[in-house]
Amino acid sequence: MKKSFYILMIVAMASLLSACSHDIVYSRFIPVSSEKWDADSVLRFDFAILDTTPDYRMIVYVRHTERYPYQNMWLFVGEGQYRDTIEFYLADDRGQWLGDKNHGFIEMPVLLEEEKHFSDTGTYTLTIRQGMRDSLLRGITDIGVEIIRNGKE
Predict the structure, then answer these.
(1) Is 50 helix (H, G, I), strand (E, B) or coil?
(2) How many Å apart are CA 11 and CA 18, to the nearest integer?
(3) Domain at 25-149: CATH architecture
């Protein structure tokens, strides 16, 4: 009985994981040199859109250490003609880090767009630059982008 239960659980988990990963069309992290993000450093994410039928969710991930000196962060984000400045919080009012803590790093997901529609197939470029006043922003280790196909509901 126990053996069949464990096999069933493994099959269920594998199915769930494959279903989740199927909707991710792009995922990439770019490391920030020496945990100091230069204000002039533009991170570039090139991704392909092969299907224009669904909308997509676009998420930016900020990985940082406890050396990050601020509660919030500003980013300048661009994709084609689209340009935006976004602000989000990495810590609460008490200074407790938000996001997932793992192996000395904190990873904070930031929803960029919930229902982004791409009108044409092809390669798109998303650029991200830090918008803080520090010319060298310390404590940032990686910036990531994930593009996820929204399900039909």
Answers:
(1) coil
(2) 11
(3) Sandwich (2.60)
What confidence tens digit (pLDDT) does each residue in 57-108 have? 999 999 999 999 999 999 999 988 789 999 999 999 999 999 999 888 999 9
The string over 93-131, giving b where at least 16 C-beta atoms fall within 10 Å of a residue's C-beta and e elsewhere, is eeeebebeeeeeebbbebebbeebebeeeeebebebbbe
C-alpha span between 102 and 67 (Å, rounded): 15
CA dist 22 and 148 (Å) reads: 9
Can you say how many angstroms the Cα of residue 6 is from the centroid of all Cα atoms in its chain? 33
What is the secondary structure of 53-86 as a DSSP string?
SS-EEEEEEEEE-TT---SEEEEEEEETTEEEEE
Q: Where are the domains of the chain?
A: 25-149
